[in-house]
Amino acid sequence: MINHEVRTHKSAEDFPIEEHLAYKIAKVAADKVEVPADTKDMIINRIIDNASVAMASVVRGPVTSARVMAQSHPHSSDASGNGSTVFGVDGKYSAEWAALANGTAVRELDYHDTFLAAEYSHPGDNIPPILAVAQHKGLTGTELIRGIATGYEIQVDLVKGMCLHEWKIDHVAHLGPSVAAGIGTMLNLDVDTIYQAIGQALHTTTATRQSRKGLISSWKASAPAFAGKMAIEAVDRAMRGEGAPAPIWEGEDGFIAWMLHSPERTYTIPLPAEGEEKRAILDTYTKEHSAEYQAQAQIDMAFALKKRLAEEGRDLADIESIVLHTSHHTHYVIGTGANDPQKMDPDASRETLDHSIMYIFAVALEDGDWDYEHSYSDERKHRPETIELWHKISTVEDPEWTRRYHSNDLSEKAFGGKAVITFKDGTVIEDERAVADAHPLGARPFGREEYINKFKKLAAGKVSEEEQERFLAAVQDLENLTDLNELNVHVTPDHLAKAPKKPEGIF
């Protein structure tokens, strides 16, 4: 890997295009290096993972809205290309709208893969738009693999070197450029075209983090899907010869100067050298539980504590307080450091509560289980004993957990924390967990079998067993797949009929 220093340059400076970060990323995308076997295997795992959570969310409101919007944009037989598929249904649709629908389905439950470093990300968000373009262009599984490998690589590298949330910019600002780069790789575009597409994608996908603050709405699920849609359109414009603002990151009125810290800040972005394999997907990790990633280890710890307290004859009603000692991110984004009263409110939305470690820890401690539907149900969040326990929980930042969160040493990088439970009689019980059980360094790391089991669990009752097996056979033979429409998954008519009736929009 080569570390590239990125800073603001005045318009009057001599700053050749070859030094622009967007150009350097474009060169990585255009590099025809082979994809290593372990990267290929993990790409298959993550396509399965995305399909799993999409099936679980397919009849939820935001997903239904996005799907109906896509269905209002069917692919015309008179148009070029083949069109793209939409999760759950038949038909071919415009690629950018299929990407919006599928991206929303994947993101809705906050249940797919994650990478955390200087910034946050869900790199699996790259897959829906890249796949939609691959289907539209009639590409093969091998070409799709190359595109996804680049998408993951660029997003992870940007996340390692450039913090956005510090300046209240949403993390999808790294996703637009990574999708554009991945599509560029897949379509074998030249460096100059990819460069323009990356610039346009960043320019059109920058937004504030209010989507993940306060009254969190369904836009949280749609924001990454919208970024993917914009990236597709950016590549399309660039292929037609249209340019982008430049230099997009380093310009005097550009992204770093005015969206991030200031013109004085320098960022260091690692990128593969020419001929270097794209392996960043191997640094990422998926979720066993449907909640913000920093809650994964805390949920597993709560399960263990429930058993321990039961063995010791302890009653949860006798708890005086629970303090979770954890990282800066966990404390300030999903903890009491966020100062969001909604995170303690039983009438809050699901999108808010899957970003409340206080609620999540209380339910996990009471139930010893976590379910993507039941754990967030109205009945569950309104139980008086749950509300009482929930409101006894607080978080504090521990510098050591923050240091481990930001460590570049994957053997010590951690997203967990320590729980200190104080009982009314003065007894204190503590436990800690660095990583989730499903993490590569956890007690039960996810492999192919676990991804398949997750798919079967979430598809049960929604997708016929025959359709499940057809999809799993197709995706596991991805390198030899010539019809990428086989990566769509159809749900049963009975399940699709459960989708809410939504008001009509423009389309």
Automatic annotation (TrEMBL):
Domain MmgE/PrpD N-terminal: 19-264
EC number: 4.2.1.79
Pfam families documented for this protein: MmgE_PrpD_C (PF19305), MmgE_PrpD_N (PF03972)
Keywords: Lyase
UniProt-recorded Gene Ontology molecular function terms: 2-methylcitrate dehydratase activity
SUPFAM superfamilies, sorted: 2-methylcitrate dehydratase PrpD
Signal sequence, renumbered to the chain: none
Catalytic activity: (2S,3S)-2-methylcitrate = 2-methyl-cis-aconitate + H2O
Keyword Cell cycle belongs to the record: no
Residues of the MmgE/PrpD C-terminal domain: 289-479
Protein family according to the UniProt entry: Belongs to the PrpD family.
Complex formation: Monomer.
Protein name in the entry: 2-methylcitrate dehydratase
